[in-house]
Amino acid sequence: MSPELLIDALIIAATPILLAAIGELVTEKSGVLNLGVEGMMIVGAICGFAVAIESGSPALGFAGAALGGAALSLIFGVLTQYLLSNQVATGLALTLFGLGFSAMIGQGYVGVVPPATPKLDFGPLTDIPFVGPVLFNHDLMVYVGIAIVAGVWATLRYTRAGMILRAVGENHDAAHALGYKVIRIRLLAIAFGGACAGLGGAYLSLVRVPQWTEGMTAGAGWIALALVVFASWKPWRIVIGAWLFGGITVLQLNLQVAGVKVPVELLSMSPYLITILVLVLISSDRRRASLSAPAELGRVFHAAG
Amino acid sequence: MLRLEKRPQPSRLWTALTPILAVLATMVAGGLLFAALGKNPVEAIRVIFFDPLFNDQVASFARPQILVKAGPLILIAIGLSMGFRAGIWNIGAEGQYIMGAIFGAAVGLALYPMDHALIFPLMVVAGALGGWLWAMIPAILKIAFRTNEILVSLLLVYVAEQILASAALDLLRNPDGGGFPGSRDLSEWDTASNLELIAGSGMHWGVVTAFIAVIAAYVMLSRHILGVHLRLAGQAPRAARFAGVRPGMVVFLCFTVSGVLAGLAGLFEVTGPAGQISIDFNVGYGFTAIIVAFLGRLNPIGILLAGLLMALTYIGGELAQFMLGLPAAAIQAFQGMLLFFLLALDMLSNYRFRLVTREAV
């Protein structure tokens, strides 16, 4: 297989978790731990798929996926922010509900082929040897993913809104005392995370696979959660992590196709094992792990007085 | 103006009432969901909640099935509840359940077709060991490297599923099975089978073990210092450390209990109701048990009742699928919804509303 094709496959494999992880990063930066990424992704996958089939437009499909993911995340938002429920348990509930709900509405869509998502037309740029296929031969969502990462990075670093978001995540009582609407800001961050996870899910069902099957996310949401830890809550490292992960996935798939004398199951489990290994490496560095996590991550905010 | 105020202590009345309210709310919301699918909501709820128990035509078959399904749910949920009390989140029970089944079945199949009274007990031990070993991975990583146990235990489910596929297709495949995937049928081999103890009751060794686990957990939590330590570790980690509770020890204990119980559940399932190791052996008991643990308020007696109720929705769901053509996944969404309502209503036990007049600023 040529290196251009490998890199192309790598980028396609990386994009779903890149999208989901950058959304979760924003949610976690606001101090909220949403473990429902897997559920939001799968609901995004079916919403995007259904809208794309019914409308015939992949672009509308992605919009529908973002809406679906955001709507589901707002259930989490209302429960954790207004009804002060435990974030770990609520996130798990979101995943369990999302898996069931998506399977239910996805019944009529099994075996249907979605409209193809076109690659962007860069004209003669695509014909440049190597650089063309690698940089200028993708669908819109690949660039949207990178643009979201860049946007999140710039917002967190240079804008007032980014600073407020970080303040809410680092010390919600202080932010509240300064007059910031902690709950409203967190709800926005949660909805952004849900929309991104929805886009990631739709990328799976509309581009990567492209088909609808029950439980098709197969742990991608959990890997996205691990990716945020791997990235130490820094946006650009999400890209590196997602591409590394995409590389591993493509590599093991190619080894399976090539019929290497390693059990298929061992290759299939390798992405999960490597994710665990990376988590261990990151968390064993005590200083780094404790410095980079938002201080209020997972804590309930209840304004006193 | 209504204001939310934290109660000094969770209200015991509301703690007991919220699961019931949550079930009622889920019935209403579930009814709306079923109506949206074009089914008669009242009929659907009746089929799910009442027919398995009271419909003459199906009850004789459905009642024992409730125990069969409740057994693994209760067994796993009791283990998980220990950790949830202490703020330790083992959400990979599904993987530990699979590994328990594989370990137990492997030991049994290695001895096939011997006949000895000790083979089944040996398989039980192997099943517990399998679940325990699988649970020890996230536990040790958390103790040694502070690695997030939620992510590790969950990711290991996917690894366990691959091992299961490998076992069904290759390692434990029935040599006399004509090339079909899946192991020998353990339930047809008397020495290793875990059949009903009383015909027509649904009661097998796994259900008995689940009842024993409920009693043991109840005694431990209410009568033993360990129960206090667990709760202390979850609610006030610093205070727990001053009281001499070692955090690493709590992690180890919680994962040991939940891993062993999930492994046992897997073993009893593979030797009984499932019969064999196959690719689709696991059906999500490990995840539904999370809902059972919360619905039962992390309390052993509560978990017993919640496990029976959740088993009822499984059976009722199958019945509704058969009788009304309700999609199989609808019941899964229904169960997830139950957890939402429970978590939402939980606020009533931890907080109270106070009517306050707006103060002058």
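qc> Strands of chain B lie at 2-6, 351-355.
qc> done
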